[in-house]
Amino acid sequence: MKEVDMPTGHVKFFDNVKGFGFVQSDEGTEAFLHVSNIPDGVTDIKPGTRIEYSIVDSKRGAQVMTMRIIEVPESLEKKQRANSRMKNEDLVILVEGLISALDKIRPGIEHGRLPEGASADKLARLLRTLADQLHS
């Protein structure tokens, strides 16, 4: 049996609502992609997704028949979070500052007094900053 090389490329556009889009090969040729030809279990396909695929010539031009996802692009949000990540030494300073601030408010909390006003706002901002850094 002769092995056939399948073209590789990326998803140029895909509309999940309409159920179709287009792929572009590494050589620059385009082919139509229908939702029925994406792999089972794939519910959303993003532009830039690297794929390997087979095509067939139809009345309307080249059409993807089968495809296999090679690589899903990293999301822009994930890249932005990674770029906004603090240096380790800055993160240590933040944690140490939070420990100190929490130690100071602990006696009041033990007696039912929560921080108020500007000090509560500052502490909340620091806690959110730490949470964002740990979540990225």
Describe this structure in words.
By secondary structure, this protein is α+β, with helices and mostly antiparallel strands. It has two domains: 8-71, Beta Barrel (OB fold (Dihydrolipoamide Acetyltransferase, E2P)), CATH 2.40.50; 76-135. Helix content is 37%, strand content 29%. The protein is built from three helices and five strands, in the order E-E-E-E-E-H-H-H. The chain has helices at residues 76-83, 88-110, 117-135; strands at 8-15, 20-25, 30-34, 50-58, 61-71. It is elongated, with a radius of gyration of 26 Å.
Order of helices and strands: EEEEEHHH
- How is the biggest beta sheet arranged? 5 strands, antiparallel
How many DSSP H or I helices? 3
Write the CATH fold name of the largest domain: OB fold (Dihydrolipoamide Acetyltransferase, E2P)
Helix content: 25-40%
Q: Looking at the chains present, what oligomeric state does this protein adopt?
A: single chain
Rg over C-alpha atoms, rounded to the nearest angstrom: 26 Å
What's the number of domains? 2
CATH architecture classification name of the largest domain: Beta Barrel
Fraction of residues in β-strands = 25-35%
Sum up the overall morphology in one term: elongated
What's the N-to-C terminus distance? 49 Å
CATH C-level label of the largest domain: Mainly Beta
Averaging pLDDT over every residue, what do you get?
87
User: Could you say which structural class the secondary elements and strand pairing correspond to?
Assistant: alpha+beta
